[in-house]
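Project standup — Tuesday

K.O.: blocked on the structure for the chain from last sprint. Re-posting the sequence here as requested.
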Amino acid sequence: MYRAKITGTGSCVPARVLTNADFEGMVDTSDEWITARTGIKERRIAGEGESSSTIACQAAENALEMAGCAAHELDRIIVATITPDTPTPSLGCILQTRLGAVNAAAFDVSAGCTGFLYALSLGDSLIRSSSCEKILVVGVETLSRITDYQDRTTCVLFGDGAGSVLLERSESDQGILSTHLYSDGSRGELLYIPGGGSAMPTSHASVDARAHYLKMDGNKVYKIAVKSLYEAALKALEHNNITSEDIALLVPHQANDRIIQAIAKRLNLPPEKVFVNIQKYGNTSSASVPIALDEANRQNRIKENDLVLLDAFGSGFTWGSALIKW
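H.V.: unblocked you, prediction finished:
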């Protein structure tokens, strides 16, 4: 039986930093208020000439370099994003061209902040079925393009960035052990963008109504996210007949530090077993898990044969988990 083994990780964030102090001159907020409620101190914002494809390309190149893999060796490129450069062609196809991955079929996956786990699960399935040998999975967002900087309840939360992993077919016991995906579309309007699609095409009226920005009922999303993330994590543990004590590192979606700490407490995980970087980047949606995974990897927080648990929740609603033997 084949497994999908992660042989390379990569990430990229824009150079521009937007701090909590910067927001004090934009909306009615403060560094103390933002930090206490979210754990965020700063976030990265794409500058002029930067887009999802530019930061995704750098993250992808970093993963390929770590793995010693040339772009032409790739069989698939799967990109998780809700902020592609254009509605069509897909960001996957744009990335394929930029990388020179001439032999790879490329496409996008849209599942909000859980997008990377959805893409990872698909890549895992393709490798297990013997359809592919090498797959690049990318999570990337430029959320600054869809953030309403007049809305104090949401604008402080989001940032831009990209993360990636290279999956390779392996006959060892290392790699992705299982993935678990869920969704509940009945609560989609608690976190959504009303404008820009076929239901509300772009018009002067929709732009004036600020309908093309993210809208969120934060309190309701928080409660659902904690419950869903915990249940997804438990499912991964139960499926693999292990307990939380066996986990070397939890790499959760970086949406809110209070959510992360609530999950860690429920799983009885000490701080050293939970990777947190939300203070630097804020919520980067589908990019948050792969960015955190790459940083943990490069900081030597993950050792060979460690069990790593990934956990994410996002718009849709979508949520899920993945267990990896490193």
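K.O.: great, moving the ticket to review. DSSP finds ten helices and 13 strands in the chain. The chain has two domains: 3-173, 177-325.
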